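Limitations

Structures in this collection are predictions, not experimental determinations, and the ligand pose is part of the prediction. Treat each record accordingly. The example that follows, with ANZ as the small molecule, is included so readers can see exactly what is and is not provided: the inputs are given verbatim, and the output is the predicted complex.
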Amino acid sequence: SERYNPREAEARWQRVWDENRVFETANDDPRPKYYVLEMFPYPSGKIHIGHGRNYVMGDVVARYKRARGHNVLHPMGWDAFGLPAENAAIEKKVHPKEWTYENIATMKEQLKLLGLSIDWTRELATCDPEYYSRQQKLFVDFLAAGLVERKTSLVNWDPVDQTVLANEQVIDGCGWRSGAPVEKRELSQWFFRITDYAQDLLDAIDTLDDWPDKVRLMQQRWIGRSEGVRFSFEIEDGDGARQAEPLTVYTTRQDTIFGASFCAVSPDHPLAKRLAQDDAGLEAFRRECAALGTSEEAIERAEKKGYDTGLFAVHPFRPDVRLPVYVANFVLMGYGEGAIFGCPAHDQRDLDFARKYGLPVIPVVAPVDADPSAFEIADEAFVEKDGQAVRMINSAFLDGMSVADAKEEVASRFEAAGTGARKVNFRLRDWGISRQRYWGCPIPVIHCDTCGIVAVPEANLPVLLPDDATFDRPGNPLDHHPTWKHVDCPKCGAAARRETDTMDTFVDSSWYFARFCSPRDRDVVDRAAVDDWLPVDQYIGGVEHAVLHLLYSRFFLRAMKKTGYTGLEEPFRGLFTQGMITHETYRTENGQWLFPEEVERRDDGTVVSRETGRPVVVGQPEKMSKSKKNVVSPEAIVETYGVDAARWFMLSDTPPERDSEWTESGVEGAWRLIQRLWRLVSQVVEIAPPAATARPERIGPAAEGLRRTTHRALDAVSRDIEQLRFNRAIAHIYEVVNAVTSLLNEKGNGEVAPDLAWALREAAETIVRLSGPMVPHLAEECWKVLGHEGLLADAPWPVVEPALLVEATITLPVQVNGKRRDELVIARDADQSAIEEAALGLAGVQRALGDKPVRKIIVVPQRIVNVVV
Ligand code: ANZ
Ligand code: ZN
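Predicted complex:
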């Protein structure tokens, strides 16, 4: 038969699907719903094949669920606001809008090449007024519902570019573009009150049992609930004069209070600010700390430094003990009370600090078996605190207690004395959404000198971005636009100013999945549609979004519930985080990156530049990225191998959660497999032509054997796809392919009995249907050759005949002296001696036996084997 020509066939089937609107989804469809979504892309320019993996995975699920009789929602859109567009405006002098929409057009073309079963009628772009106008309505509703707050917070300020910088834009304390040392500034900003939901967001993680454990753990850590105590120290100056204001600290280790040797406040603490007014040294220290920016990581990494204020804190239980009070760079203003007591013996940070400033190190927790008078701390803090292994020492009334009991005791004493109280804290902060930039959703409020903050009335929405912004000077283009911000107050009519901040782009991506349910609705969403479609049954995306995007979306749905847009709280029932696609990197001798197509691998294994013939340095496979040029374009693949080959390779190469290395030989292998499937189907059609095959009366052993293989694969592939184990699904498809191939080879040119012909056709049809979600174009083509009228995309999933699944083998656990050591897979009808022999041969059993002689073997038929020594 002739070769399969993917280039021609793929374009043709894509046209057929489009023209027949096969993947358009109606809301009023009686079938059970299934919502599958991949995290929508940022339109950065072009996609490479590495971007394709999660879309292809989602597509397999979508096509599979369609075949299983679901009404599938599988939409696509664009996360289209953001800084890169504004950078392009500055660097390339194109308008962010133009840049963004051009990228969207390019990337849409590219995505279409992948043959995805997407309902493009639901497409949306977050930069489109159609979308962001609804987002503004949401904001106004959230504001009215008390979910939004305006408060000051510290930001990274670039004094040259006159702009707020995100933490990632602060590099070694300097602005990424200007190179100027960053300052910390207090700025009035808009916040979503996500912390109101901290406990709820934490508790509900338990219900997300179809999420990866690591993501749930990351969310838990991010929310960071801790139980501790908030209490106050009396403060004295160097002469023993009591100060009016006590110092309040937060601790989770109140048990270590007798090991306290200093107190420290944040450089932004009111006490530090006050003292700095008449202390130039302290002011300089505060400025030095400010240069660290607001990133917690940077603060964590920096050397721990302090400034001695000359004040002392009075120990709450030992009035004769005075602790020096420092301003320290590692104490954050945003957490707890912005002030701590330090216990160097049991906290590494405090220990480093104590060693640097010559402060005492007093152990108060020690292993139960240690001699309290001899227990000392060297360079490592002793952080063990759990259970019966440690107890309190050097701690007056706490001596001998466990850490847990000591915590209780100290907390109770503070509460009795009225100087402190138990307190739950969360690491989670309110979500600051103000961005001083142009290319984002304008925050729909107006500042009036008389009325204060006034929400833009619904009738005046949307607040559109002005097109005629300029990007040639520092600062926020909306702020220095000549007219845009000048409006009359909607309340009193006086001259007022628009808010010029735009929203964090994470806001845009926190509800797009809800908008997809009724993408053209005049309101924010159609509540019935949202309640029907959500939660997303399967969400697929990168683990880099495991915390912020997912948490914000969870908050958003709760906020939308509060404002009446939905009855639901959790947006994503199932979550999958896929691995990345990697590729080798290539560099010339002078360090220039080369694209894969610019190099050539010679027969002797050396790699050279196609242009110069000079050797090229081949680097380890790394995540595909434009900057290192180790990318492959979908166009190039489609041209040479067809997209089905790329899809097959992406799915078959590794488990989907793991990284997968893209290689030319890998795609080539996938291409060969596609040709092989094609030949196989063509051969079977010759033996068992479409019309002529009715189910035979009698099915002989050869046909029966093939049918078992076929149905077992069908069963396994269904389960594998349900669990997103695509590589295993493909391995099971191979089992049928191999069985058919060997039967065809055996037959040679001979005749085939009708029952076997029939079973071969069933096998071929099953192969085609099972591989349909993975290689949909090839499968449609084969489906047609097999004589079907309709589209495979509309055909139901084949049905398993359970009788064919009854295993010929069983699995028996094998114990040695009652302890499970291995398991045995053996023929269901194997006799006693065969089982005994096989059990003794197992690696796990042999390891457990060592050289001990076997006394007895007990076989409980169909149940268990126990070896006694
Ligand atoms: C005394 C102490 C002794 C502490 C000890 C730890 C170990 P989590 O569990 O994350 O809530 N802390 C409190 N507020 C802080 C701030 N604003 N900036 C930096 N550190 C702060 O952490 C609570 C612990 O972090 C608190 O318990 C406090 O140090 C520190 F052996 O108090 B601890
Ligand atoms: Zn007013």
